[in-house]
Input
Amino acid sequence: MQPARRVAYDVLRAVSESDAYANLLLPSAIAEAGLTPQDAALATELAYGTLRRSGTYDAIIRTAANRPVDEIDPAVLDALRLATHQLLATRVASHAAVNESVNLIASAQGRGAAGFANAVLRRIARETPGEWQTRIEDAARSDDERLALRTAHPVWVIRAMRRALAAEGRADELEALLDADNASPEVTLVALPGLAEPGEPRRPYAPTAYGSPGGDPHRLLTESHGTVRVQDEGSQLVALALAEAAPVRAEERWLDLCAGPGGKTALLAAVARAYGVTVEANEVVPARAGLVRNALRAVPGEVVVHEEDGRVLAVEHPATFDRILVDAPCTGLGALRRRPEARWRKTPADVADLVPLQVELLTAAIEALAPGGIVAYVTCSPHLAETTGVVQEVLRGRADVAELDARSVVSRLARSPIDLGSDGSGRVQLWPHRHGTDAMFLALLQRTDSDARGDSAAEGDDTRGTA
Output
């Protein structure tokens, strides 16, 4: 089997069997196989393209096989998905796609499975991509199901995206958003301020962001010793907005409460150096805490990295921090173009499980704010339950917290005019189709009560420098 196809297939199997993340596994698989740049590009297209559109391919395979896909052996199904992608979405010759997939199945699953796969793939190869698309859409039970088959998104995700866009009065942008989810994103780099200078081409919004100069940026990243990193421009914007939200005073204490894997922490730490600000980080998962420490190696000075439940850490440090970033665990629906398998892994139940945690983390962060302190609530999801819903729940009945206008902060920060929609609040929702970023959400909340530090603060005992 051609090495690129083998690598792509092995990644598909790892995603199916072990819940692996393709964006983490694929680079190491390519390196281990010693693929040429051309074969590496092919393996990436085959793996990502197959994962991205697997829901649509399953509908085609189900029709061609005349049986539900959950009745097909998982290893055979992954091979059929890979071959279907080659047949319908690439220039790979039909006979090569069919024969190599059949041979792979024969060696792994036996002649019986190979015969079944051969019959299914030859049926698929007899019709054009357009004919197959018409056929499966004609069998759809609703307009949303037809759109799901056409754009390779689960119906529940489509409905959530539509509601989020409608909140800005832009529901008509839904198909543009879904198409953007299916486009491979360009590599965006961050130059840590004070440690590296952005190269060309510059990105339009974040002052620290620029595009990869071409090809694999690995050499550039290595030579920079961590002062240049791969980071989405939207992620850079929301982190920088926390620093830009109000004038920075010397000796402030900042906290990244949910820091893993550390990209935003490193950016905040680099910004903080210019102000003499202390930065701390927290990450409950030890392996991810290790990634945070690794990301911070490029930034001179010490950043303490805690390994606690963020809700507990915040309670242990009441009225302590001047700025807190809560980059909350979320469904990740805003980064589907980077994580092609995520759309098929997540369910509405994940939202229901995450929202209480998001509310608790944001509530705890507010308690850890010093008077006048600011928390940035951030998610890489536009789902209204994870964004506006969380903010509204936390603000309900609280007179000691004011919401700042994050839209004006981001507009002031951006290098070029930025088209930010509005739901009537000052919150920011970025979009892949409109901004070329992940769909990052940002709300800025400020602690307004003057006695949050307790009696000792009222007597002049400034406790910001203590735990």
The chain has a mean pLDDT of 93.
